[in-house]
Amino acid sequence: SPRRFCLHPELSEDLVGTHPPGAHSLVAVSVGYFLEDFVDMLCNQKLHQSWELLFHHSVVIICFGIAVLLHQYVGFALVALLVEINSIFLHLRQILLMANLVHTTCYRLNSLLNLGTYVVFRMATLAWMTRWLFLNRENVPPATYAVGTVGMAIMTPMNIILFYRLLRSDFFR
Question: Which residues, in sequence order, are CB contacts of 106 under 8 Å at separation 6+?
Answer without folding.
Answer: 96
